[in-house]
Fold this sequence. Notes:
By secondary structure, the chain is of the alpha/beta class. 47% of the residues lie in helices and 16% in strands. The chain has 13 helices and eight strands. The protein has helices at residues 15-26, 44-53, 70-80, 99-109, 131-135, 146-150, 165-171, 182-193, 216-231, 240-261, 264-278, 282-295, 299-310, and strands at residues 5-11, 33-39, 59-63, 85-88, 94-95, 113-123, 162-164, 195-207. It has an eight-stranded mixed β-sheet.
Amino acid sequence: MPPAVSIVVPTFNRLKYLRRTLASVFQQTFQDWELVIADDGSDGDTRAYLQTLEDPPRVRVLWLSHSGRPAVARNAALRAAKGEYVAFVDSDDLWTPTKLQTQIDSLRRHPRCGWSYTRFVLVDESGNPTDWQRTRSWPIFAGWILDRLVRSETVIAVPSVIVSRELLEQVGGFDESLVMCEDYDLWLRLAARSEVDAVDEPSALVTRHAEHSGNEITSFADCARVFEKVRKIHGTEHLHAILGEKSAEVAAGLARSYAASGDRAAALRTVATSMRQSWRYPRWWSGALRATAQVFAPHALMAVARRGRVGASRPRGVPRA
């Protein structure tokens, strides 16, 4: 019999975090699972550690060429997965011991739901809640949540999600053309196809640290592509207005990021190409004007600004693999 759950872990180095992550998997009270680790071309130390864990069919390691794209690694693991459900956890995050048991029990009580998510906690490298987490939290909703996801009324963290493998096959897994935001893209497609079961308790710890990959330019550019994809989903016509506003905000953010990085031509090009669809939104104007002002600021002033951005707090959003 195939396992109830296939646990998908993409990894690239980060051995000090990976050990903790996999320990939290092995400590699950629910034991009917297989573990599929997709290694994205890690170095020798990480490979040596993963070789000690290989124990087919319970624990399998897929040795991949480095792509730098979590979507590629996760999809490779999905193709190898045999479980009825798939659970995701990134190589620097943690699960509480009863995470799988609680979600599987709840999903079986709600058979109309093809996927599930829970609350999560943002923690630092020592496992302590971040300053942001101590003062804020996102609400969690069950049922049809596509509108709420588009409106950013809730946020879903990768390690909080379990999806039926059948539903994943229907929506096509992760979009490998996206370097970032590929998780948000998948949640939107899942939400358009199925109701979601929401477990209103924190079962995942998402670690914030200095080794996260990605940058603001890539994030904004990929987010713009995600919103454009949502427009093409049948039945989302009522969301086109809010998608227009979101796209305008993303375009303004992309222009500001280009300007801050010193790519003045790309900043002006982004402002010009987004104007036709975004001029009606006040937030686009404020961002576009800021980007334009940065473009024409003296080089010395921009150099100081860029140094300030490098030393600033980490970008907003949920950390990734």
